[in-house]
Amino acid sequence: MAWIYLSIAIIFEIGFALGTNATNGFTRLWPSVFTLVSAAGGIFFLSLALRTLDVGVGYTVWTGIGSIGTVLLGALIFKERITPAKLGSFAAIIGGVVLLRLAAGV
């Protein structure tokens, strides 16, 4: 169940990051509300996942996969470029997440 909670937390984390871009410095109401709700949801579900997972594993996976999702959706939504350096970084993050999951034994 911890990995399901962590997956939900990652979705909220991606929503938080993308929403922050849309708030225009928290001057736009609905993007700001979305961003704050996403931040709270991400932290809530992360806290549920951390009941079982080590904090080092859970937090690293949350931020790592959340970063990848944010970059990919940022490219789709905001037309940001995905460069070879970003692709290499994705590979490193995914490799690290796989190793952390193996090390956690769950």
UniProtKB/TrEMBL annotation:
Subcellular location: Cell membrane
Alphabetical list of InterPro entries matching this protein: EmrE-like, Small_drug/metabolite_transptr, Small_multidrug_res
Keywords: Cell membrane, Membrane, Transmembrane, Transmembrane helix, Transport
Membrane topology category: Multi-pass membrane protein
Transmembrane segments: 29-50, 57-78, 84-104
Alphabetical list of Pfam families matching this protein: Multi_Drug_Res
Main location: membrane
Family: Belongs to the drug/metabolite transporter (DMT) superfamily. Small multidrug resistance (SMR) (TC 2.A.7.1) family.
The protein's name: Multidrug efflux SMR transporter
Lineage: Bacteria, Bacillati, Actinomycetota, Actinomycetes, Streptosporangiales
